[in-house]
Amino acid sequence: MRPRCGFYERRVFPWLNDKFNAAPALQRLRAEAVANAHGRVVEIGFGTGLNLAHYPRAVTSVVAVEPNDGMHVRAIERIRAAPVPVEFVAGSAEQLPLADRTFDTAVSVLTLCSVSDPALTLRELHRVLRDDGRLLVLEHGLAEAPGVARWQARLNPIQKTLACGCHLTRPIEPLVEAGGFRFVSLRKFFAPEMPRTHGWLTLGTAEKA
């Protein structure tokens, strides 16, 4: 469980997060990431609710898990305007207070970089998904280009401080597969309009292995 957020994480970082995520290219990628969401959805790292505008009509409800109460404050208006019921849960992705096999879709968008224990987080998502459920991911992580990866390792300590625990060096595809999933669709690429150290993205859909 993460400690209670400090002033910077509660008040400043949510505003910065919204600014950094406002790029049209990133919004298009969010829409692509959640396009196949359906039924009952659990979204970890809900943040300020930027994915809500992109969920398709096949989604019937969303349980939004977020440990930062400052993010929740900025999310309130988006939650009110959402076309589906949204239940906000102030909690940790590593300890989901949710029953086994009760969700059709799990969503992780730019979140596995910041959780304290990605392996445990993925095991929790595996637990709460129905047997035929799917995990949708859009994550930045360790680049496959060696030169970029070296710079990511150099910048990682600064990144973790300025971005409230966000890592540049987590290998997303192996992490997801080690968590009991297999990808049924997968794209890995450098995002437009983002620095290469921060813009190596993994976009995919995974099912229980």
3D architecture notes:
The protein is an alpha/beta fold. The chain has one domain (7-208): Vaccinia Virus protein VP39 (Rossmann fold, 3-Layer(aba) Sandwich), CATH 3.40.50. 34% of the residues lie in helices and 26% in strands. The chain has 6 helices and 7 strands. It has helices at 7-20, 24-33, 69-81, 118-128, 146-162, 172-178; strands at 39-44, 59-65, 86-89, 103-109, 129-140, 181-190, 200-208. It has a 7-stranded mixed beta sheet. Strand 4, helix 4 (118-128) and strand 5 (129-140) form a beta-alpha-beta unit. The protein is globular and about 45 Å long.
Write a brief structural summary.
The chain has about 210 residues and is α/β, with parallel strands linked by helices.
Using brief descriptors, characterize the structure shown.
26% strand, Rossmann fold, 209 residues, seven-stranded mixed β-sheet, 6 helices, alpha/beta
Number of domains: 1
CATH homologous superfamily (4th level) name: Vaccinia Virus protein VP39
Q: Which term fits the overall shape?
A: globular
Examine the coordinates and then state which fold CATH places here, giving the name of the CATH topology.
Rossmann fold
Whole-number mean pLDDT: 93
Broad CATH class? Alpha Beta
Summarize the amount of helix as a percent range: 25-40%
Q: Compute the CA-based radius of gyration.
A: 16 Å
Sequence stretches where pLDDT stays below 50 over 5 or more residues: none
Query: Largest sheet at a glance?
Result: 7 strands, mixed
Q: Could you say what the CATH architecture is?
A: 3-Layer(aba) Sandwich
Order of helices and strands: HHEEHEEHEHHEE
Distance, first to last CA: 27 Å
Q: Helical segment tally? A: 6
Structural class by sheet pairing and helices: alpha/beta
Strand arrangement in the largest pleated sheet: 3-2-1-4-5-7-6
The amount of beta strand, in percent, is 25-35%
Say how many strands there are: 7
